[in-house]
C-alpha cells in the first residue's frame, strides 16, 4: 500500500509537520532518528536545521523520494529500509527521536516506544504527533479508520508507553492539518514531547 501511495507524488507534501516546527528547538541537537519517515518531509527539514538524520521506513519507494527531496534541498540524510517491528534502534544511540503519524497496532506501538526510550541518550528527547480516536468524528481525512482504528493514540497511552521519560508536553487537541493530499482538514491529535533523564 505504501509503495503505491508514494509512487507518484509527495502524498503528505514536502513541508514539515506543524508540531515538529513548533517544538523542534526543544529537541536535543545531534543524531536524530525519524520513525516511519515516509517520503522524508520531516527528516529532510530536520537535516536543514543541522541534525544528523536517519530516516527509517518500510517503503523503498518512499525512501527514494526522501533521498530525492534531500538532494533537492542540498542536505544529506541516511535512509534505512526496515519494518519497525524488527528495526534495531540500539541503546543510548540517538539524541532525538521523532515520530509523526506513525500509527501502529497497540502491542507493536508499546514495543516500539519502549525500544525508543532505551535508544535515547541521557538527556535525549522524543517528539510525537498522532491522531486520536476523536478524529473519526472530524471531517478531515487523516489517520487510520475502520478495522485499523485501534492504531489511533491517546495521551494516556503515551504517558504509559514513555513512563521512563520526563514529560514536557502531553495533550490532545483538534487542529487544522494541511499536509499533502491525505492529511487535510480538522484532525484530532495528540502531541507529545519528553526528555530522557540524565545529562
UniProtKB/TrEMBL annotation:
Source taxonomy: Bacteria, Pseudomonadati, Pseudomonadota, Alphaproteobacteria, Sphingomonadales
GO molecular function: methyltransferase activity
Protein name from the UniProt record: Class I SAM-dependent methyltransferase
SUPFAM superfamilies according to UniProt: S-adenosyl-L-methionine-dependent methyltransferases
InterPro entries for the chain: Methyltransf_25, SAM-dependent_MTases_sf
Gene3D superfamilies on file: Vaccinia Virus protein VP39 (3.40.50.150)
Methyltransferase domain span: 33-124
Keywords: Methyltransferase, Transferase
Organism: Novosphingobium organovorum
Example GO biological process: methylation
Pfam families listed in its UniProt record: Methyltransf_25 (PF13649)
Amino acid at each position: 500500500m505504501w509503495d503505491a501511495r508514494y509512487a507518484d507524488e509527495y502524498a503528505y507534501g514536502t513541508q514539515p509537520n506543524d508540531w515538529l516546527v513548533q517544538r523542534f528547538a526543544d529537541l536535543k541537537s545531534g543524531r536524530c532518528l525519524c520513525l516511519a519517515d515516509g517520503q522524508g518531509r520531516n527528516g529532510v527539514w530536520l537535516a536543514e536545521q543541522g541534525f544528523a538524520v536517519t530516516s527509517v521506513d518500510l517503503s523503498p519507494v518512499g525512501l527514494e523520494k526522501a533521498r530525492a527531496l534531500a538532494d533537492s534541498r542540498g542536505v544529506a540524510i541516511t535512509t534505512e529500509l526496515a519494518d519497525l517491528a524488527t528495526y534495531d534502534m540500539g541503546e543510548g544511540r540517538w539524541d532525538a527521536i521523532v515520530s509523526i503519524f506513525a500509527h501502529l497496532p497497540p502491542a507493536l506501538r508499546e514495543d516500539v516506544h519502549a525500544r525508543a526510550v532505551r535508544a535515547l541518550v541521557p538527556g535525549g528527547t522524543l517528539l510525537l504527533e498522532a491522531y486520536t480516536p476523536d478524529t473519526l468524528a472530524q471531517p478531515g481525512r487523516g489517520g487510520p479508520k475502520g478495522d485499523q482504528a485501534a492504531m489511533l493514540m491517546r495521551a494516556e497511552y503515551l504517558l504509559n508507553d514513555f513512563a521512563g521519560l520526563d514529560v514536557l508536553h502531553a495533550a490532545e487537541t483538534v487542529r487544522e492539518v494541511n499536509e499533502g493530499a491525505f492529511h487535510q482538514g480538522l484532525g484530532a491529535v495528540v502531541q507529545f514531547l519528553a526528555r530522557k533523564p540524565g545529562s
